[in-house]
Specification:
The protein is an alpha+beta fold. It is built from four helices and six strands. The protein is globular, with a radius of gyration of 15 Å. 22% of the residues are buried.
């Protein structure tokens, strides 16, 4: 597992090169995205499971950000103010095979800038990344 100094160095590297490294750009959380991810319909929502691996993170909190990390993921949650409006940036990096890569960056603002939406969207992306990694591993094993 990466140590806090390595994690901070990765954060700085990603933050300084965000436009080049965020290959899908920065996703803004809004009503259409929540519908697309099925996070609004109660029966489609990700259920809170106390054994869910996405809840097993080490936490480092500073005045600038909250960093969550475990063996698979690095997550930085950055509350900011832009033009007098609160906004939250979330950067998610995958740590697999000794290599770390920035995979998802999203922002929440306005009515969507609540812990509930930040965490639901974060959980969705973490689960999606795990499913993608499992699919890729299965395909590699078949070859």
């Amino acid at each position: 597992m990466l140590n806090p100094i390595e994690i901070e160095n990765l954060y700085k590297q990603y933050a300084e090169n965000l436009s080049q490294l965020a290959h899908d750009g920065i996703t803004s959380v809004d009503l259409p995205l929540l519908h697309e991810l099925n996070l609004l319909n109660e029966h489609d929502q990700i259920k809170d499971d106390p054994d869910d691996l996405t809840q097993y993170f080490h936490v480092i909190e500073t005045a600038e950000k909250v960093t969550l990390f475990n063996e698979q993921f690095l997550v930085w949650i950055l509350p900011k103010t832009e033009q007098d409006n609160p906004i939250t940036y979330v950067m998610i990096a995958l740590n697999a095979g000794g290599k770390t890569s920035l995979e998802v960056v999203f922002t929440t603002s306005g009515v969507y800038n609540t812990p509930r939406y930040v965490l639901k969207v974060l959980q969705y992306y973490l689960i999606d990344m795990l499913e993608t990694q499992a699919t890729l591993s299965a395909m590699e094993k078949k070859e």
